[in-house]
């Protein structure tokens, strides 16, 4: 999944959970049933999970360009330089 796909997934998850929560509260209040409210919200969580967890093809519209391995060998990794510590006297 690419970065843009992760952004879309995050937005979809938030939208679906908020909508299912609002619908669950309204229906639960109208029917005066806590059980109905929880079932509707649980259905929204399951729906959000089915939409966001699998790596669907429309989440991969902007693939990342990785560095070719042969090109990576031409440019060695930078070395960590040890910093000098100054002692207090």
From TrEMBL:
InterPro entries: Spc1/SPCS1. Pfam families: SPC12 (PF06645). The chain crosses the membrane at residues 12-31, 38-59. It comes from the Eukaryota. GO terms for biological process: signal peptide processing. GO terms for cellular component: signal peptidase complex. It is found in: Endoplasmic reticulum membrane. Keywords: Endoplasmic reticulum, Membrane, Transmembrane, Transmembrane helix. The keyword Transmembrane applies. It is a multi-pass membrane protein. Belongs to the SPCS1 family. This is Signal peptidase complex subunit 1. It comes from Brassica campestris (Field mustard).
């Amino acid at each position: 999944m690419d970065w843009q796909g992760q952004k879309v997934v995050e937005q979809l998850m938030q939208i679906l959970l908020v909508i299912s929560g609002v619908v669950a509260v309204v229906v639960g209040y109208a029917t005066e049933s806590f059980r109905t409210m929880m079932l509707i919200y649980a259905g929204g969580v399951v729906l959000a999970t089915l939409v966001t967890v699998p790596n669907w093809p429309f989440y991969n519209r902007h693939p990342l360009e990785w560095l070719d391995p042969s090109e990576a060998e031409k440019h060695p990794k930078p070395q960590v330089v040890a910093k000098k510590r100054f002692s207090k006297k």
